[in-house]
Amino acid sequence: MNSAKIRKEYSLVLHPSIEIIDKVAALKAKLTTKIRKYASRDSVAHVTIIKFLASQKELMIIEKKIEMFCNSQKQQKVIFNRLISSKKSRTIFVIPDESSKTYLKNLLDDFRKRLKTRYTKSGGEAHISIGRKLSSTQIDLAQNLFGPVTLKFICDTVAIRKFSKNAGQFEVIKTFKFLENPLIDAQYSLFD
């Protein structure tokens, strides 16, 4: 098979500040001391927008679309402050406050609409995972482990991450900043 047509696995995520990445890493470390191994333990804090498969050529097109969208995207402060432990989804995660939830829903929907292909899969509602694929026992053990959690950051960066089979997780390969530039007429037609 032509290597140019081989599709690899990627994700597009909101990429928080290093301060938030470190805070989430500390929460994960605390969880690790209580329950040991679990899925997403080593994953860097992020909010998933989409997962997708792309060849190298397709990835270049996607990168251009992301770059153009980010060129005019406004930066905004967001707050994630509600910790959820769900036995149904087997996950511990933090969700945004109501104001941030509305902004993030619109932002994620805009990205998803512009990047939709038959090889994309949308993420869910905006959240930052602390632990995934947890057993009921692990969730019970972690129930009172965390006090109030507040993660505040300026939402100003998205990242493309590529799945690494060696690491068993996604790794950032490229970031894009929200530049807050006005759209010019030619750019409007690209998003129709």
UniProtKB/TrEMBL annotation:
What SUPFAM superfamilies does this protein's entry cite? LigT-like (SSF55144)
InterPro entries xref list: Cyclic_Pdiesterase (IPR009097)
According to UniProt, the name of this protein is: 2'-5' RNA ligase
Species this protein is from: Pedobacter soli
